[in-house]
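Our collaborator T.R. sent over the components below with a one-line note: 'Predict the complex.' Nothing else. No constraints on interfaces, no templates requested, no preferences about which chain binds where. So this is a plain run: every listed entity goes in together, and whatever single assembly comes back becomes the starting point for the next discussion.
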Amino acid sequence: MHCYIKDLSGHIGQSVTLQGWLYNRRDSGKIAFLVVRDGTGLCQCVVAKSPETEGFFDQSRRLGQESAIRITGTVRANEKQIGGHEVDVTGLEVVGESTDFPITPKPHGIDFLFKNRHLHFRSRRQWHILRVRATVIDEIRSYFNRNGFTLIDTPIFAPAAGEGAQTLFEVDYFGEPVYMAQTGQLYVETACMAFGKVYCFGPTFRAEKSKTRRHLTEFWMVEPEIAYAELDEVIAVAEDFVHSIVQRVLKDHREDLEFLGRDMASLEAIQKPFYRLTYSEAADLLHSTKAKELLQNDLETKHARIAELKKSIEEKDKQSEAQGVKQWQKDKMIAELAEHREELGDLEEEVKNIPHHMELAANFQWGKDLGGSDETIISRLHDRPTFVTHYPRNVKAFYMKKNEQDERICNNFDLLAPQGYGEIIGGSQREDSYDELMAQINRHELDPADYAWYLDLRKYGSVPHGGFGLGVERTIAWMCGLKHIRETIPFPRMMGRFYP
RNA sequence: UCCCCGAUAGCUCAAUUGGUAGAGCGAGCGGCUGUUAACCGCUAGGUUGUAGGUUCGAGUCCUACUCGGGGAGCCA
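Returned assembly:
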C-alpha cells in the first residue's frame, strides 16, 4: 500500500510502499542505508544483505543520488532517525535512474545553486522555506476572503506607470509600448467602487537596478483596497492582517521554522497593537541618543564578535591542519570556517557602514525619504512591527491623500518589520479630490491622458478610500529569518538572473 | 548609474616573495553489518573567466572587458 512519509506513524509494524527519490545513501558490505524523500518528509530505509534482499541489494548500493525509487518495507519507530521512523526494506523498484546529480550534500556556492534552482529546491532547507511560502500565500487569500474582500485580478500589461517611470519593464505590444505592471493599485481603486472591499494578488515587475538582498525584479504583492476607508481604518486592517499571517505560520510551521533556525520567541512576541510613529516622530527618533546608542552598541558588539571569530578561525585553521584529524572532522571544521568567514565578511562590511549610518541618522532632515539604514534603525528599536505614518508629500507617490491639517504631509504609512527586516508594506489613503489629483499629476509631470480612466473615479461618486501593498517575499524572509529573499520564491528573477 | 569584493578540476576551496597547479567532495572500481554531510584504498579529471601588457618566468603584478556577490540610490 502506498504511504506518504508524513503518515508513517499510523503504520508502525505494517508493510508500506514509499514512492520517492534517493536523498542520500550510506552503505557497507552487508548493509545499506537509503535516505528517501517523497515531498512530505525524509525517511531512512535499511537494506540488510539477506536471502530476501539478494535480488536488489547490490543495486541499492549503486543507486545515484536522486534516483526515483519505489520501496516496500516494514515500518519501525526509531526516535533517533529523521522523521522518527525507519523502514526495513523488502522490495525495491527503480522508477527513474539518476547519475551525477549536481547538488551534493556538501557546500555549494550561491551562483551554482541558483543556476540549478530547478534541482536546488529538492534540498531540505529550500523545501522548508517554500512550504512556509505556500502557507503565507494561503493565509493571504483566506484572510481577505473571510473578511469580505472580493478578489479582483488586475492586468499585467499596463498602459502607464503606477509608480516611478524609471523602473518599468517595457514590452512590445503589437508595435506599441506597454509596461509590465508594477502594481495593481490603480485598478483595485476602481474596483473597490464596485465591490466595496477588494484585493488583487499576483506578480509585479520592477526594473530596479538593485542588487541587494531585499530586491527581486519579479515579486508577489497583495493589494487590498477599501472604499469609504480613511487612514486609520486601513492601518487597522494591515495590523490585523499581518498579525494573522504570523499566527498562522506559527501554528502550522513550527518544525520548518525550527529547522531554519528561526528565533521563535521574537515571532511569538508579534502581538497587537503594533507600534505607531509619525514620520516626524521617526525623524526625532533618528536624531535621538537612543538611535546613537543602538549603533554604538552595535559597533561594540560587532567588534567583539569580529575578534571572537578571528580567534576561532585561527584555532580551527590550526586544528584542521593538525595530524590525526579524521576527514569528516576536517570537513566539519572547514564548513564552520567557511561560515565564520562569511559572517566575518558581513560584519566587517557592517562595521564599515555603521559610522556612515550614524551620520545619516544624526543628520536626517525633515522632508527626505527614510533611507534603508534609517528604516533598519527604527525597525531594530522595536520588537513588534512599526507603522510610520504621514510622510512628506513631495517624496511620495502622486495618488496619496493630502493631510487636511498639514499640507506638507500625506495620509500614508509604511509598515516596518522588526529585527531590521524593514519595509514589508507601503500604503495610503488615496487622493479623492479630482482637482487635487489633477494638480498632483501635473506636479509629477505625468500625462493626464494616461490617467483619464483613473480620474473618472473622482468624477462619478468619489469617496475616501485607501489600501496597501504587502511584499510577499519580504514577509516570508521575515517569517523564516532569512537574510536574502531569493530563497523565498521558487524561481527568483533578479537583475542579471532569469535562468532557469 | 555609482562604490567595494571575487572568478583555479563537475562542486567547495588551497597554492609562501612572481618560480614544477594541489586537497576534499562528486564520478568509476574495490573493501567494510548500524551508518547519520559515514569511513578506508585505488583511478580518471585543468587552455587558472576573456583579451592584451610587464617579466627570463604570471594562477599570482598592471589595463580593459565579461560574469557573479555585497552595498548606495530606489523600493515591497
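Summary for T.R.: Chain A has a mean pLDDT of 89.
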